[in-house]
Amino acid sequence: MISVPQPQAASAAAFCLRLLRRQLVLGLRRPVDIGNPLLFFAMVIALFPLGLGPGPATLASFAPGILWIVALLSNLLSADAVFRSDFDDGSLEQLLLSPQPLYFSALAYVLAQWLLTGFLLALLSPLFALMLGLAPVAIPALAVSLLLGTGVLSLVGGIGAALTVGLKRGGMLISLLILPFYMPVLIFGSGAVQAALGGVSAMPQLAVLGAMLCLAVALAPLAIAAGLRISVDS
After folding, report:
1. In terms of Cα–Cα distance, which of 165, 159, 180, 175 is closest to 223?
2. Contact residues for 92 (Cβ-Cβ < 8 A; gap 6+)
3. Are 62 and 44 in contact (CB under 8 A)?
4. Distance (Å, rounded) from C-alpha 74 to C-alpha 68?
5. What is the pLDDT of residues 202-228, one digit of tens each?
6. Which parts of the chain span the membrane according to its record (predicted)?
7. Which long-range contacts (CB under 8 A, 24 or more apart) does 209-213 make?
8. Most exposed among 35, 38, 73, 143, judged by the fewest C-beta atoms under 10 Å?
9. What's the pTM value of the predicted model, to 2 decimals?
10. Domain chopping of the chain, boundaries
11. What is the pLDDT at residue 2?
């Protein structure tokens, strides 16, 4: 059995933590990038009562699907910017040349994007759920499903961002690439909330979302690393 030397492993972990901190600091210095998905989420949620009518029963019945669709679109809105700034200033090319494992570097980028978008959406989701009249009994299932599901969305979105980072206008292309892979997350995420509303355990749907997240954590950074090499070398 071949083991990685401890100093090298510690060096890779420290590098990834520094990279994560850097991305978080850069994100906090650009509050517009954080606020856009949250503002989009709030605006769309506020518009649905105007289109569907203010009836509490009507809004409550559509609330699980509405919340999950808007969360998906909010994540898609920020996916294109994951690697864009570093590609433009040449930092991404230097990262590819570094001796550190690109798998963990890609994971750090995606984790920073998730903390600044998906995690915040999951934290604020109870407030928006109450705006739509969602029953309080379903709010825990909504928050947990969003925590798990937005992690999968960020990892899958990172693959699309890596493949299109070299294109000047990759927003539409990234949507076409990754939207089909978002559908299972949407189905099981909204299904978990519907199950909680019906008085049934949401654990089966949440378990599937957890399995998706584990699979995405294992495989998505590899695809992101390959996509970045293709985009930078082309």
Report:
1. 159
2. 83, 86, 165, 228, 232
3. no
4. 10
5. 999 999 999 999 999 999 999 999 988
6. 38-59, 104-131, 137-165, 177-200, 206-228
7. 209/145, 209/148, 209/149, 209/152, 209/185, 210/148, 212/148, 212/149, 212/152, 212/184, 212/185, 212/188, 213/148, 213/151, 213/152, 213/155
8. 35
9. 0.87
10. 6-233
11. 37
Tokens, residue 30: 């650009």
* Sole residue written with tokens 């901190």: 21
Place of tokens 């210095």: 29
CA of 92: how far to CAs of 38, 47, 75, 163, 173, in Å? Answer: 27, 39, 22, 13, 21
b or e along 101-130 (b: 16 or more beta carbons within 10 Å of the residue's beta carbon)?
Answer: bbbbbbbbbbbbbbbbbbbbbbeebbebbe
pLDDT below 50 — which residues of the chain? 1-6
